[in-house]
Design brief:
With about 425 residues, the chain is of the alpha+beta class. The chain has nine helices and eleven strands. Strands 1, 2, 4, 5, 6, 8, 10 and 11 form an eight-stranded antiparallel β-sheet that branches. It is elongated, with a radius of gyration of 31 Å.
């Protein structure tokens, strides 16, 4: 008898501690979603291995894949930036309408009371389910249930609720699209990382002393204080950088077509080992290395009494950085207040310096093509405050030099998407 009573009294406690069917169902759905993600990731990795194996040692095909994937990554980044920009005013307007409705709570109570007096149930909570509330109010007005002196206020309430409902739909659509783009970005970043790793493996296999060169570059960078000194030191004392500089001096000024115009078709060759066109001929054709907003321009104030020798772009965290031109890497690594610094010898006495990234994915001596992925931004500024106007977000610094002297990069950038050269 005692045992039976204990069993009976224990049952409600056990039931109280047991998870509800809704919680169990939610956990099952979460588990199923995780399994689906794992399966999708495994399938993607298998496909990437197969794609890389199919390319083999074909440098041209690998380079073209890298350029194409990097372009897609930057395209998705642009769509995400655009969606976030569209969402900001929508969210602000929704909050404003909700605030207006909240401030008119007394008036709303009167309207709802009128509905109740007409024998109707009060509509659902306005701010929780505005769609249901809007439907109830419209029905009441059509049936004449709202007393005349309440009609004007009811109509204003209907107008506000209609806008709120439409805003919620627009926001939902934008957020769904944004979520899809973020998933797509992750997938493309995974793809890009795999192909970048393969490129660097092949590069390392070709250059056995790559690690020694990287160590030598770091040592040399500590011996100089200026960018010009770094360039000169690298191209004189670093074996890989010196070889790249020598190659640049021989192959860095491709001939133009008979009409004097640069041969744009040369960009279509992903297997090229020298610039498609002379850097001086590329004015008005180059794409910015990262999606971002210009915050400082060449020749402007640097904030400490001097003038800017380059330009700065505020970018999104984790943004992909691509090379704006063909060129040979003569430095890759940390340098002074610039954080991670990449220097390209573009031939013809031109150098392109890019700084502020979190991680660089190319090595000294490597020849890179226009549009190839070369680095990734971090989550905060990596450049000293003298260069970065906004330390709260990643800032990419870009500088062009001709025969050692900083020049305005402005004339080289394409005015619109259609004018940019592609690899």
């Amino acid at each position: 008898m005692t045992t039976s009573v204990r069993a009976q009294t224990a049952t409600p406690i056990q039931q109280a501690n047991a998870p509800s069917p809704d919680i169990i169902r939610q956990r099952e759905q979460e588990l199923e979603a995780i399994r689906a993600q794992q399966k999708s990731a495994a399938e993607l990795q298998a496909k990437l291995k197969a794609d890389i194996a199919a390319i083999g040692q074909d440098r041209g095909k690998l380079s073209q894949q890298l350029i194409d994937i990097a372009a897609r990554v930057r395209g998705v980044e642009t769509r995400i930036d655009d969606a976030e920009a569209r969402l900001r005013p929508l969210d602000a307007r929704e909050q404003k309408i909700r605030g207006t409705l909240e401030s008119r709570r007394g008036e709303i109570v009167e309207v709802l009371s009128a509905l109740q007096r007409a024998g109707r149930r009060a509509p659902p909570a306005l701010l929780v389910r505005p769609e249901d509330a809007l439907k109830s109010l419209r029905t009441a007005m059509l049936l004449g249930s709202v007393v005349p002196d309440m009609r004007a206020r009811a109509e204003k309430l209907v107008a506000d609720l209609s806008e709120l409902v439409n805003l919620r739909k627009a926001i939902s659509t934008e957020r769904d699209q944004l979520a899809g783009d973020r998933d797509k970005l992750k997938e493309e970043q995974t793809r890009l990382a795999s192909f970048t790793d393969e490129r660097q493996k092949q590069q390392s296999a070709a250059e056995k002393d790559m690690e020694a060169e990287a160590a030598r570059a770091l040592t040399l960078s500590r011996q100089v204080d200026s960018l010009q000194g770094l360039i000169a030191k690298m191209e004189q004392d670093s074996k890989a950088a010196a070889k790249a500089a020598a190659t640049a001096s021989l192959q860095g000024t491709p001939a133009a077509l008979s009409n004097g115009k640069p041969n744009i078709g040369a960009f279509k060759d992903p297997g090229r080992l020298s610039p498609a066109i002379a850097f001086a001929s590329a004015k008005g054709m180059l794409a910015l290395p990262v999606n971002g907003v210009k915050i400082r321009n060449f020749g402007g104030s640097d904030g400490v009494g001097g003038v800017e020798k380059g330009m700065s772009l505020a970018a999104r965290a984790g943004a992909q950085v691509t090379t704006p031109c063909d060129g040979w890497v003569v430095y890759s690594g940390p340098f002074r207040s610039y954080g991670q610094l990449l220097i390209l010898n573009a031939g013809g006495g031109y150098h392109v310096l890019i700084a502020g990234m979190e991680r660089i994915s190319v090595n000294i001596g490597q020849f890179v093509l226009t549009g190839e992925p070369i680095a990734v931004m971090g989550s905060t500024s990596r450049v000293a405050s003298v260069l970065a106007a906004n330390a709260s977000q990643p800032v990419l610094y870009i500088e062009f030099r001709k025969d050692g002297t900083p020049i305005d990069p402005g004339p080289w950038w394409a005015a619109n998407e259609g004018e940019k050269v592609r690899g």
